[in-house]
Amino acid sequence: MEIQSAEFIISNSDVNKCPVGNIPEYAFIGRSNVGKSSLINMLTARKKLAMTSATPGKTLLINHFLINKKWYLVDLPGYGYAQRGKQQQKEIKKIIEDYVLEREQMTNLFVLVDIRLEPQKIDVEFIEWLGENGIPFSIIFTKADKISASAQRANVQRFLDTLHDQWEELPPYFISSSANKAGRDAILDYIDQINQSL
Ligand code: GTP
Ligand code: MG
Q1: What pLDDT score was predicted for residue 59?
Q2: Of 69, 88, 177, 195, whose CB has the highest number of CB atoms within 10 Å?
Q3: Cα 101 to the chain's mean position, in Å?
């Protein structure tokens, strides 16, 4: 799928103020600093569409980007950044939970997982919570450029094995790098397929 246009539409902290209408949307969630905003820039081939930062906690709001005038990519704040104050952590958690549970236009949630790490409790628990609530999701492993192909395979397998303890059927997953564009075509094709099935 070609990206012909990508426009920032709105940022806000309240799911009720997100754009109205029935345009399908695809949201990106995961731990702070996992690479959500970078992935949106990589997919759209727009370097500065979503704001990124080397320090965690950059994205604090729900951000809607309209793609090809037909669907949205949604950048969400990250979870699990302990350096934030308790109050801010609570606010972020509420933004994420309200969005995930209430946003009817969200056709798929991409859960981003750092491919370098052993399975993190916070990610596994978040995915369990999605399952309990019947949220459609897929997994994107990020930062694949940082480790070898064999380490990628081993870490992905370890993560899937961990999920298998809870899940009979595993969700679709992708391996990506915002640095070398790995996974771009597969993720865009997947979005395209869902768009066409709606
Ligand atoms: P928050 O908004 O704070 O939740 O973070 P985020 O998940 O949006 O992460 P962001 O895209 O801002 O990226 C965090 C850091 O990781 C930045 O320094 C990026 O340059 C780096 N990064 C993101 N993706 C990749 C990748 O695929 N490869 C490499 N090498 N670095 C990456
Ligand atoms: Mg971000």
Answers
A1: 86
A2: 177
A3: 15
CA distance 158 to 160: 5
CATH of the domain at 110: 3.40.50.300
Q: What are the tokens at 154?
A: 């081993």
Q: Please indicate, yes or no, if residue 1 is contained in any of the structural domains.
A: no
Quote the pLDDT of residue 167: 85
Sort strands 25-30 and 106-114 into parallel, antiparallel or unpaired. Answer: parallel
Look at the chain and report how many structural domains it folds into. Answer: 1
Task: Tell the residue nearest (CA) to atom 10 of ligand 1.
Answer: 35
Q: Please indicate, yes or no, if residue 110 is contained in any of the structural domains.
A: yes
Residues of the chain with pLDDT under 70: none
Would you state the pLDDT for residue 56? 87
Residue whose Cα lies nearest atom 28 of ligand 1: it is 143
Ligand nearest the Cα of residue 52 is: 1
Q: Is 145 in the pocket of ligand 1 (CB under 6 A)?
A: yes
> What does DSSP say about strands 62-67 and 173-175: parallel, antiparallel, or unpaired?
unpaired
**Ligand 1 closest atom vs CA 40:** 11
**Ligand 2 being an ion, which residues bring their Cβ within 5 A of it?**
36-37, 58-59
Phi, psi of 188 (to 5 degrees): -65, -35
Domain limits for position 160 = 6-197
Round to whole Å and give the CA distance between 155 and 151: 6
Amino acid 110 reads F
